[in-house]
Write a structure and sequence with these properties.
Elements lengths: L26 E6 L9 E7 L4 E8 L2 E12 L3 E13 L2 E2 L3 E2 L4 E6 L5 E9 L5 E11 L8 E10 L7 E10 L5 E7 L2 E14 L2 E10 L11 E2 L5 E7 L5 E6 L10 E8 L1
Antiparallel strand pairs: 1-2, 1-10, 2-3, 3-4, 4-5, 5-6, 5-7, 5-8, 8-9, 9-10, 11-12, 11-19, 12-13, 13-14, 14-15, 15-16, 15-17, 17-18, 18-19
């Protein structure tokens, strides 16, 4: 995959210079590693846009644990990724970005209109470095999320009292201009509020930045807002986006019941 390190802020693809490939069409591509690497659920998603920018996600069981972005160009035998910055999952989000000192070059083969194979460095199931060919297939892009208010509810048995049933409620407000607000309750009591001033979609992922969070201090008030680092990104997977609902992948740390699930958010008036 990617190697040499150097600290940097996530600004790899801000200028308007135009790079294109005559052999690989822009789009969203999905690759599978399968049992050849450390886990059978490892997959990757590579978004190549028509302006020469890319976004890369390495995914395990629907959770992105590594991401990179920058510039891309390709011939029929080689893909070149430049101005690459990357980060690993850290305490629920991505920050502490670093960059490659030199462009990353990888061999290509079997390049077709909707697929190609890319040679990548990874680790096998025993943790031994290896080179392997990963096949990428172009997949349909996800629809855009509609702005509005959405709710997701959870009903589940109490961990300690199996006769008791807990109720979780998560409310989201999306604004097409970029703002995002979330608050969460357990059995009617507030757990936290989150406000993001910027969010976007990339492939099958929802990305929010410029996050703030606060917690209840008593029955009537909240703490001050705690701010995320300026380069922080919260990334979660999306699926089944419709006119009045969508699904978020929520890891165990992001549900009231502390169990990973596809959470269905339904539009509310």
């Amino acid at each position: 995959m990617f190697s040499t390190r150097e600290e940097a802020a996530p600004t790899a693809c801000e200028d308007g210079s135009f790079l294109q490939s005559t052999v690989i069409r822009p789009g969203v591509y999905q690759g599978q590693y399968g049992s050849r690497v450390r886990g059978s659920n490892i997959e990757t998603e590579l978004i190549l846009d028509s302006h020469g920018c890319f976004r890369y996600f390495l995914i395990d069981s629907n959770t992105a644990f590594y991401t990179a972005k920058g510039r891309w160009q390709a011939s029929d035998e080689e893909m070149l990724l430049s101005r690459v910055i990357r980060a690993g999952l850290n305490e629920g989000g991505f920050s502490f970005w670093d960059t490659l000192n030199a462009p990353d070059s990888s061999r290509l083969r079997n390049v077709y209109e909707s697929s190609f194979e890319r040679q990548e460095a990874f680790f096998d199931s025993l943790g031994i470095p290896m080179l392997l060919w990963v096949t990428y297939h172009r997949i349909p892009p996800q629809p855009l999320l509609s702005e509005g208010r959405y709710e997701f509810t959870e009903l589940f048995r109490d961990w300690f009292d199996t006769n008791a049933v807990n109720f979780g409620l998560t409310r989201i407000r999306l604004n097409r201009g970029g703002s995002f607000f979330e608050d969460r309750f357990q059995n009617g009591k507030p757990m936290f509020e989150i406000e993001d001033f910027s969010w976007k979609q990339s492939g099958s992922f929802f990305i929010s930045t410029d996050s703030h969070i606060r917690f209840p201090t008593d029955s009537t008030g909240f703490s001050e807002w705690f701010h995320s680092p300026p380069d922080y990104e919260f990334i979660t997977r999306l699926q089944n986006i419709g006119a009045s609902s969508f699904q978020f992948w929520l890891g165990a740390d992001y549900t009231v019941q502390k169990f990973p699930i596809w959470a269905t958010f339904k539009a509310k008036p």
